[in-house]
Write a structure and sequence with these properties.
Blueprint (H helix, E strand, L loop, with lengths): L1 E5 L1 H8 L7 E5 L3 H6 L3 E4 L2 E5 L6 E4 L1 E5 L7 E5 L5 H6 L9 E2 L5 E2 L4 H7 L1 E2 L11 H13 L5 E2 L1 H13 L7 H12 L4 H10 L2 H5 L1 H6 L6 H14 L4 H9 L6 H7 L4 H18 L6 H11 L5 H17 L6 H14 L3 H6 L4 H27 L1
Parallel strand pairs: 2-5, 10-11
Antiparallel strand pairs: 1-2, 1-8, 3-4, 4-5, 6-7, 8-9
Helix pairs in contact: 5-7, 5-8, 8-11, 11-12, 11-16, 12-14, 12-16, 13-14, 14-16, 15-19, 17-19
The chain binds adenosine-5'-triphosphate (ATP) and magnesium ion.
Keywords: Hydrolase, Nucleotidyltransferase, Transferase
EC number: 2.7.7.72, 3.1.3.-, 3.1.4.-
Organism: Pseudomonas hunanensis
């Protein structure tokens, strides 16, 4: 039995990047032998184990064959006679198909090192087409390694185009797609993820609403990419990046949220940004009643962070359009402070309760915002 380090750990060590998790490949073993050695199986019908001591993953060398649509339609064959080369050929990219033995020798039957040096994302074999998720994976790696100068090999892009045309992307589950989207959005250049999906026609399959923006007037598609780029540059969290991506989709935001079963806080922020972004951009022109309405809709008194994320997403959009600073942000923060300064205690002391208390609180907040907008106007003049 031979144990190799494989995949991302080998790749990232060669790139001089930090290695987070290590995947191990075991050649020449059986399920029984692994269990006898104390490794714990991960699932019933998957030849993957966890080393209880290190928590790292050990997979038996396997071949796989597609047997139907979707990911369930895969037949694995793991046995002691599956070779290292046979296991590596089923992997997505050549740079992900290298192995290293415990002495540090590199095994690279598909020339991943050469592609790594030449900064090329290239598929290992035509079997690439058997799992449509690989289209998203390649786009994600493109987003991650774009700062290093990586690009997708023309023949790989062509294969990705064929996968898009086959309709197979529709068979991906929301969970598998979202995992890739989420990771891609958190990469250094998430806009490259969308650009690559667009280049291989996958965007039209996955998010036709977004794809259509690139044909829309005023370059709405490019604006979306620019906003996303800014969000990454400013290290914004996932929900802000998702909101930047979906902000221009209007009534389709909900459908896109649902399609990928985006987490609740992503869904929520996307919808709020879609609806109220224009308000944010013209914050200083809003009258007190509209401002109050906005703060109430956001429930800023109880959900301050969500409002901050909203401002951040709008600011990234403005920066994507070439804006240098975004005074709207502090203006809105000032409005929140003014509304929050209204003392509930003094209203309660007046004997108000229930609906009457609510109405009085709202009236006081409106007064505070009127004073706030007036003083802002006075300062401007
Ligand atoms: P990351 O740094 O994102 O973890 P990684 O290359 O380690 O990158 P993993 O998703 O952890 O990516 O997968 C480990 C390895 O398994 C990959 O390097 C690749 O060889 C292989 N792999 C994973 N998913 C697929 C897939 N859908 N198709 C083909 N090969 C895959
Ligand atoms: Mg990994």
């Amino acid at each position: 039995m031979q144990i190799y380090k494989v995949g991302g750990a080998v790749r990232d060590r060669l790139l001089g990047r930090p290695v987070s998790d290590v995947d191990w490949l075991v050649v020449g073993a059986t399920v029984e032998k692994m269990q006898a050695l104390g490794y714990r199986p991960v699932g019933a019908d998957f030849p993957v184990f966890i080393d209880p001591k290190s928590g790292q993953e050990y997979a038996l060398a396997r071949t796989e064959r597609k047997s139907g649509r979707g990911y369930g339609g895969f037949v694995f064959h793991a046995s002691p006679d599956v070779t290292l080369e046979q296991d590596l050929i089923r992997r997505d990219l050549t740079i992900n198909a290298m192995a290293e033995d415990q002495q540090g020798n590199l095994y690279d039957p598909y020339f991943g090192k050469k592609d790594l040096d030449q900064r090329i994302l290239r598929h290992v074999s035509p079997a690439f087409a058997e799992d449509p998720l690989r289209v998203l994976r390649v786009a994600r790696f493109a987003a991650r390694y774009a700062p290093l100068g990586f690009r997708v090999a023309p023949e790989t892009l062509e294969l990705m185009r064929q996968i898009s045309a086959s309709g197979e992307l529709q068979a991906l589950t929301a969970e598998r797609s979202w995992k890739e989207i989420e990771r891609a959005l958190m990469e250094e250049q998430p806009q490259v993820f969308i650009q690559v999906l667009r280049d291989c026609d996958a965007l039209r399959e996955l998010m036709p609403e977004l794809d259509a923006l690139f044909a829309a007037p005023q370059d709405a598609g490019m604006h979306t990419l620019a906003a996303l780029e800014q969000a990454a540059k400013h290290q914004q969290p996932l929900n802000v990046r998702w909101a930047c991506l979906t902000q221009a989709l209007g009534t389709a935001i909900n459908a896109v949220n649902q399609r990928f079963k985006a987490p609740r806080e992503c869904q929520e922020l996307a919808l709020l940004v879609g609806e109220f972004q224009a308000h944010c951009h013209r914050a200083q022109q809003l009258d007190a009643a509209t401002l109050l309405d906005l703060l109430q809709k956001f429930d800023v008194y109880r959900r301050p962070q969500r409002f901050e994320d909203f401002i951040a997403a709008c600011e990234m959009d403005a920066r994507g359009r070439g804006g240098e600073d975004y005074p709207q942000g502090d203006y809105l923060r000032g409005a929140v402070a003014a509304a929050k300064a209204v003392e509930v205690k003094s209203l309660v002391a007046q004997g108000l309760t229930g609906q009457a208390l609510g109405a009085a609180l709202k009236a006081e907040r409106l007064k505070a915002l009127e004073a706030y907008t007036q003083s802002a106007i006075a300062q401007r003049n």
